[in-house]
């Protein structure tokens, strides 16, 4: 997955991959409760997904279960490749026993820069840590909040744009009906699978995705897999 938002734009290769550790192969995962119903719905409603979904067996969307870590990874990976992002993350996490908001606030800026972070990304990570540590984010309420309310809360953090917030909804909160129209990977996948490679507008993508509701996150995940078959965890 790749965003087109300049502030939020991971220019990554391959196109279908957030800042993540690639999962080797298509091994079974612990499915979100809605997954089986979602795949049945999508295969009934969409001829392309009817063909794609069986190709990926038991592979499915998974969450790391760590809200701060997920957002920190997304910031670290902006505008760099998946491989480079993982390298920086590996060096960054050595700076603390555990990557937590307070641990980040205790880190020395020089050490963070030496790990490969730009000055701007250091600022973003510190702002992220301050939002978590101060209680400015309603983390405990997120499971009950609607998607747009969570997005509004997250984009108040420096370095977090709508694309990152949508990736958080999909990969951390496992929300079933997110359509990330700023994602270049999704647009490319729709172009290749529905329009024979022709240029696709956001309006075109939204029209295709109308049949996917209320499981647009799941459909998006399979469109990403059509570009890159290795599932990732954000």
Give your account of this protein's structure.
There is one protein chain. The protein is mainly α and 234 residues long. It folds into 2 domains: 21-62 and 178-233, Endonuclease Iii, domain 2 (Orthogonal Bundle); 67-171, Orthogonal Bundle (Endonuclease III, domain 1). The chain is 50% helix and 2% strand. The chain contains 12 helices and 2 strands; from the N terminus they run βααααααααααααβ. The protein has helices at 35-45, 47-52, 67-76, 82-93, 101-106, 109-114, 119-134, 147-154, 162-171, 184-194, 202-209, 216-227, and strands spanning 21-22, 232-233. It has a two-stranded antiparallel ribbon with strand order 1-2. α3 (67-76) packs antiparallel against α7, α8 crosses α9 and α10 (184-194) crosses α12 (216-227). The model is unreliable at 9-27 (pLDDT under 50).
């Amino acid at each position: 997955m790749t965003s087109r938002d300049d502030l939020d734009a991971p220019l990554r290769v391959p196109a279908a991959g957030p800042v993540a550790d690639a999962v080797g192969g298509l091994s079974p995962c612990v499915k979100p409760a809605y997954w089986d119903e979602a795949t049945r719905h999508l295969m009934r409603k969409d001829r392309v997904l009817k063909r794609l979904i069986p190709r990926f067996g038991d592979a499915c969307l998974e969450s790391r279960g760590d809200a701060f870590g997920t957002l920190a990874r997304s910031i670290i990976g902006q505008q760099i490749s998946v491989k480079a992002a993982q390298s920086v993350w590996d060096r960054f996490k050595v700076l603390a026993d555990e990557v937590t908001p307070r641990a980040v606030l205790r880190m020395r800026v020089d050490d963070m820069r030496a790990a490969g972070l730009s000055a701007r990304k250091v600022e973003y990570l510190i702002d992220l840590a301050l939002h978590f540590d101060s209680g400015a984010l309603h983390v405990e309420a997120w499971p009950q909040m609607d998607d747009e309310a969570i997005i509004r809360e997250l984009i108040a953090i420096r370095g977090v744009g709508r694309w990152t917030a949508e990736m958080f909804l999909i990969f951390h909160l496992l929300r079933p009906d997110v359509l990330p129209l700023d994602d270049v990977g999704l647009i490319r996948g729709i172009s290749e699978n529905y329009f024979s490679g022709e240029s696709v507008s956001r309006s075109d993508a939204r029209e295709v995705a109308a049949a996917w509701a209320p499981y647009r996150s799941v459909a998006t995940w399979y469109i990403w897999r059509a570009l890159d078959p290795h599932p990732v965890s954000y």
